[in-house]
């Protein structure tokens, strides 16, 4: 059974009405590619979440993960990140803040500076909760873990790293700790790798395919992925971040386990659901209506425990 960490939603109090109750903060890292298009879209269209719908979706999200067989460790939203003078973050996206590996919590260093407080606060909570040692990245290294997929498959371990809000120095440091069998860095126009890319593991825990937003991934990185000699399945922009002023639904932002894929909607790209069925991938779907305007979904809201 795969174990994952989830941060619960912030509780309303005083003037604070809930998660993103006053709109979505716009974040960007150090590169043009690192802008979160979803939050820009939400701001331009003055979108404010319906808190009742947001809470209902989140409750159903937790139920569907339990149904899929995941063991959940649900941590309370940290009080210090739910104060009126400290809301310019996306702290419910626990994925981005670090990686729990054996006896360590490898702490993120955000290139999106306003989000660094998430890494600081979550590291302390997780260190205490799980009795883990906090490991900091070296000077000049940046890594937000929405840029990372670490797979422990039947016959190998594989590390995929994105280069939009993270740099090679950050990934190389994590590589030196976890020592994967294969290591692949990918450059894309997605602010995090998990908005444009997802591996697929079959029921035997073998890497069998990649879902890719091909229009968002650089040609040299597509060549790297082709070397894995698995099926490259292209999703239309609507299943990623969208295009031409239309926001996508981030269906590509998936939580994976062998033979399992959980996400926020069926893929609208033709034939993908049929391909997944043919691969015998069990699908677990529940909408996350207002999370897409923050640019995140199932992968962003979860964080695996690697023992």
What key attributes describe this structure?
21% helix, 6 helices, 307 residues, L-arginine/glycine Amidinotransferase, Chain A, alpha/beta, single chain
Number of domains: 1
CATH level 3 topology: L-arginine/glycine Amidinotransferase, Chain A
Q: How many angstroms does the end-to-end distance come to?
A: 12 Å
Task: Compute the number of helices.
Answer: 6
String of helices and strands:
EHHEEEHEEEHEEEHEEEEEHEE
Rg over C-alpha atoms, rounded to the nearest angstrom: 18 Å
Strand order of the largest sheet: 2-1-17-3-4-5
User: Which class in CATH terms?
Assistant: Alpha Beta
Q: Mean of the pLDDT scores? A: 95
Major pleated sheet: 6 strands, mixed
Helical coverage, percent range: 10-25%
Estimated share of beta-strand residues? 15-25%
Could you describe the 3D structure shown?
This protein has 307 residues and is of the alpha/beta class. The protein has a single domain, classed as L-arginine/glycine Amidinotransferase, Chain A (5-stranded Propeller), CATH 3.75.10.10. The chain contains six helices and 17 strands. It has helices at 37-44, 51-67, 116-130, 168-178, 219-226, 272-278; strands spanning 3-7, 71-75, 98-101, 104-107, 133-135, 148-152, 157-162, 182-186, 197-201, 207-212, 231-234, 242-243, 246-247, 255-257, 260-263, 282-285, 303-306. The strands form five sheets. It has a six-stranded mixed beta sheet, sandwiched between helices. Strands 6-7-8 form a three-stranded mixed beta sheet, with helices on both faces. Strand 7, helix 4 (168-178) and strand 8 form a beta-alpha-beta unit. It is globular.
